[in-house]
Design a protein that fits this description.
166 residues, mainly alpha, 92% helix, rod-shaped
Length: 166
């Protein structure tokens, strides 16, 4: 059991201790500040990332509430537009009904006036026809009664007397 790795001697121990001390000195002098600096930078980066994530979460919550408000406003505006459209539709229908009733009344009045005009025209034509028939009948009667010249002169004289009296 004389293995130098298992039972090192004082010389090996001294050189190992010296090389370990130099290594620790070099690491403390050059390595440790770099390691601490990188750890500090990493800590700062993580802290900033956490802060940015928290800020982003707050902004997302704000955006979500803003979106919900916009959605409520849009629904309200949509409802108002639909209500206005319904009112406009009802007004248009009502106006159309009123105009149709007025037009129907105007047509009825025009038809009544046209009917009255046609009635008057028919009565006028009937009177003219009756007058023409009366004249024809009178002519025929006179022609038949006036075949005698003496009677014809007497009839003419009577009619002239009647006209001068009026």
């Amino acid at each position: 059991m004389n293995n130098p790795l298992i039972n090192p001697g004082i010389g090996v121990f001294f050189w190992m201790l010296l090389s370990f001390g130099i290594l620790v000195f070099i690491l403390l002098k050059f390595g440790w500040p770099v390691i601490l600096k990188s750890l500090k930078e990493r800590e700062t980066a993580i802290s900033e990332s956490l802060h940015a994530a928290d800020k982003a979460r707050q902004e997302m919550a704000k955006l979500k509430s803003d979106n919900e408000q916009l959605l409520r406003d849009a629904r309200k505006e949509r409802d108002e537009i639909l209500r206005a459209a319904r009112l406009a539709k009802e007004n248009i229908i009502e106006e159309a009904k009123v105009k149709a009733q007025q037009e129907a009344e105007r047509i009825r009045e025009n038809n009544a006036a046209a009917l009255e005009y046609q009635k008057m025209e028919a009565m006028h034509d009937l009177k003219n026809q009756i007058a023409n028939l009366s004249i024809e009948i009178a002519e025929k009667l006179i022609m038949s009664n006036l075949s005698d010249a003496k009677e014809a002169n007497a009839l003419i004289q009577r009619e002239l007397d009647k006209m001068s009296l009026k």
